[in-house]
Structure formats: C-alpha cells, structure tokens
Amino acid sequence: MKQKEILLNSLLIDTENFHFTDDEIGDNHIATSIETPMRSDAFDLSDAEKIKKIEGHFREIMLTLGLDLTDDSLKGTPKRVAKMYIEEIFSGLNPKNEPQVALFENKFGYNEMLIEKNISFYSNCEHHFVPIVGKTHIAYISSGKVIGLSKLNRIVQYYAKRPQVQERLTMQIAKHLQRVLETEHVAIYIDAKHLCVSSRGVKDDATSTITSFYGGKFQEEATKKEFLGGIQSV
C-alpha cells in the first residue's frame, strides 16, 4: 500500500486504536469513517416531522443564549433554521436526494481525459457545524460511457450538503463517480477553506486545505501531471 493510502486510511478509520478525546477529534478535524455516520432510524421521521423537532430544539438554544424571541427579527428564526437544515444545507444526508445519473454512449470515440474544474461547493464541518467553502476539480477517462456535465456538479453538491470532513468528501465523490461511470480512471482535487480554522480555534484566515484522489490511469505520473496542469490553467 502506498504511503498516501496508508495515511488516508489512518485519518479515516483507525481512530479506535488511538483513543482520541472528543475535543482532540474536533480540534484536529479527524474523520472516523469513509461513510457518513448515520443511525439506523435516520429516516423514520418525515422531513416535516424533523423540521418541527429541530425548530423546537433551536428555539431552546436561542432562549438559552438569552435572545428575545418576541422580537420580529428573531421570532421566525427557529423554523427558518430547521427548514434550511432539512431542505438545503443537510439535504445530502437523505438518499432520496441522490442525483439521478443517465450515461450516454461515447459515440465520439473521445478517449482522453475530461476535466470539469472550479465546481464551487458549500459544506459544513461535522465537528463544529461551521462552513467549509471551496472548489472541486474532477476528471475522468471514459470507459465507453459519458455523463452530462451538470451531473458532476450535482454529485459534488449531494455529498457536500451534509456534515463533512474534507477527506471523506473527496473519497465519497471519487467512489461515486467510479461506480456510476464504470471506470477506475477518476481524479478529484479539492481546495477548501474551513471556517472552523479561520473563525475559531487558531483563527488563521490565510490557509486552505487540499485533498486529492487518483484512480486508475491517474496514478500514472504523466496523466496526473496533465490533470494538475489542466486545473491550474486559466
């Protein structure tokens, strides 16, 4: 196993052997699994029922903070937040929102890499529930089928719209594309800013985090170099 793969696996799944505290996991942005951790009863409640429950809980949070919920500006906030959580920023938790992908025959016989770069996304750090903002660059080499370009954006958004860590986001997008495209030849490059680093903790606003995935032919240096050159070009 390559050194990068060993490091990635340890970041994602080997936390049981290190007995990290909750604060250590959060402060070091450690992921515990490649799959998003979900309970078995995650979808027993309807979206409407979840919105109602979250509205009540968030109202209690605001009251605990000392906010006056009789104020016209604040009284609708608990419901707005609840709807935003379920219908927007965490909608990727629900499998029913997975993008439906139709593949098309590669009638052009195009056998070089296709790059879709600068896919903007907004996610949320699962350790502090503050935003992750970044761009994803995707490339693949057709195995005989091609995908509509907008579907690449939708797949990125699907996995971004859930509590995340960037390593997991990278892997989930890559594995999904390998599955639906029926090819190992997929590359992912994500450059993102984490507000849990820039707005709290060390409060370093100058840094960004880069993660990548190279499958199939993209593990070859020449192909990898072509991909990296393509996403860096103007």
TrEMBL record:
It comes from Aquirufa salirivi. It comes from the Bacteria. Pfam families: GTP_cyclohydroI. Pathway: Cofactor biosynthesis; 7,8-dihydroneopterin triphosphate biosynthesis; 7,8-dihydroneopterin triphosphate from GTP: step 1/1. It catalyses: GTP + H2O = 7,8-dihydroneopterin 3'-triphosphate + formate + H(+). Zn(2+) binds at C125, H128, C196. GO terms for molecular function: GTP cyclohydrolase I activity. Keywords: GTP-binding, Hydrolase, Metal-binding, Nucleotide-binding, One-carbon metabolism, Zinc. Its EC number is 3.5.4.16. HAMAP family: FolE. Residues 54-229 form the GTP cyclohydrolase I domain. Belongs to the GTP cyclohydrolase I family. This is GTP cyclohydrolase 1. Homopolymer. The keyword Metal-binding applies. PROSITE patterns: GTP_CYCLOHYDROL_1_1 (PS00859), GTP_CYCLOHYDROL_1_2 (PS00860).
